[in-house]
Amino acid sequence: PSGRMSREHALAFATTAGLTGVGSLALLVNPTTAALGAATIALYAGVYTPLKPRTPYNTWVGAVVGAVPPLMGWSAAGAPLLTPEAFVLSSALFLWQIPHFLALAWMYRADYAAGGYAMMPLRDPTGSRTSAVCLEYSAYLALLPVGCWAAGLTTCMFPIESILFNGAMLTAAARFHNAPPNQRSLQTTHARRLFFVSLAYLPFFFFCLLLHQRDRVKNELSESVVHSTTMPDASLAYPPFSDETDASGTGEPLSEAREALRRRGRRLCIHERMDSHSSLCP
Q: Residues 79-120: pLDDT tens digits?
């Protein structure tokens, strides 16, 4: 808006950065990750950005854009995309973004209006629709850990521990939804609390997901070598997942740390103290 950068300069910079990034992914990682990166740029610049001043549903399109980077990381690690694990990673990011950004949009609706953005709070004077959607998607998020356990991706401890952070998210969303429409300051206060709770939500979600995962994909990939046409030694470029120790006797640090946390957690369980002859806690 200040005119310090022309459209031509902005286009040149964006094009250079995009081509460099996608090219680096193609050469140094793998073509699938590069294709996902290119699709993200195209969707963000070609669809999401033009929709911002036109429809409140731009938030949902933006959530799709935000759900792709976890798939890129999954693909970069050598794992196949068409797996339940990849679906969980992208679904978590997609669902989380709706209450996160709608709460933010409610807090700064005047700024969004001044910028010409068509956000849901600008077409929802009472906030009832905005807060209801926040509560709805927070409820969807709360079902993900249960689905992970039911699908055999994690132990039952993931949905159990998720009661804490999902409970906090649902409580914050419910308070935003139940705030009287004629008390704007109270609505904004609860929207701000929901926003900050959402900031803490993802670290807890992914930490518990990592801690309680079952290594189905890792075990499958450890039996095969990921081949690459761009590097002479694909096994060095994309080492297969493995929790087993190598010849030197050292294991994967992340897996070792996870197992140590699991052992410490078992010591805190009441039923483990009651029966010392068997491990009941997953």
A: 888 899 999 999 999 999 999 999 999 999 999 999 999 999
Residues 218-255: pLDDT tens digits?
555 555 444 444 444 433 333 444 444 443 344 566 56
Given 79, 98, 114, which residue is the final one in a domain? Answer: 79
Are the CB atoms for 231 and 28 separated by under 8 Å?
A: no
pTM over 0.85: no
Is residue 105 within 8 A of residue 120, CB to CB? The reply is yes
Per the structure, how many domains does the chain have? Answer: 2
Q: Are residues 164 and 142 in the same domain?
A: yes
Q: Which amino acid appears at position 12 of this protein?
A: A
User: Residue 146 burial by CB count (10 A; 0-12/13-18/19+): exposed, middle or buried?
Assistant: middle
- Does 208 share its domain with 101? yes
Contact indicator for 202, 67 with CB cutoff of 8 Å: no
Q: Which domain holds residue 107?
A: 83-219
